[in-house]
Fold this sequence. Notes:
Belongs to the short-chain dehydrogenases/reductases (SDR) family. This protein is an alpha/beta fold. It is 50% helix and 15% strand. It contains 9 helices and 9 strands. The protein has a 7-stranded parallel sheet with strand order 3-2-1-4-5-6-9, sandwiched between helices.
Amino acid sequence: MTTALITGATAGLGAAFARRLAKDGHDLVLVARDTKRLDEAAAALRERHGVAVEVLPADLATEDGIGAVEARLRDGGRPVGILVNNAGFGNRGAYLEVPLQAELDMLKVHVEAVLRLTGAAVPGMRERGFGGVVNVASVAAFVPRGTYGASKAWVVSFTQGVLRDLGGSGVRLMALCPGFVHTEFHQRAGMGTGNIPAWAWLRADRVVDEALRDLARGRSVSVPSRRYKLAVALARLLPAGRLGKVSSKAGREY
């Protein structure tokens, strides 16, 4: 089995990826900001699955944080065969209500970190003739939703473009575009979720299972669950303003 590196690995989809990949026998490198939570997660995964788990505290909104993860991915003596670029966050409020620095931090994590970490991981994967990169985006990539949606749209386009450039190399890249998932995402952003219907929620473990199936099938974009596949299809057909108005309100109650 190969080693998988996961960013944002202590909660939500990142933790779900860690559980599933450890269950499958992969050694792990867990990346997040909170050292205490990293150590606790690593200990639990080692005990339950008997895999090697390395922790790498790093804030991907900073140059030092991105640089530390880049260096680990470039370490040819300890190759990483699967990269999950999962770290991300949301900002509460509409454009102009959010401080500019918070928007810039979002672009650092959602765009620059994804660009640089993918660039650090892929050369070794191509040289070895196999590997996989999952870049976590969102169904928000397909509807107008400020900086968050724009950054996730970039992730989808970037992933598809790099995959095309690497055709025939044995390296798979996929953008994962989930809808609302039961995680800490909204709580951390201070967003309410009372206006999100129960049917819209997905379980993190189910999202990860479907994502890994789609990666194995060589798909460039994964949209978990039939309901969100339909939503994305509608988003591509309807005028942008129709779904954008709904999306801009969902999950933004204070």
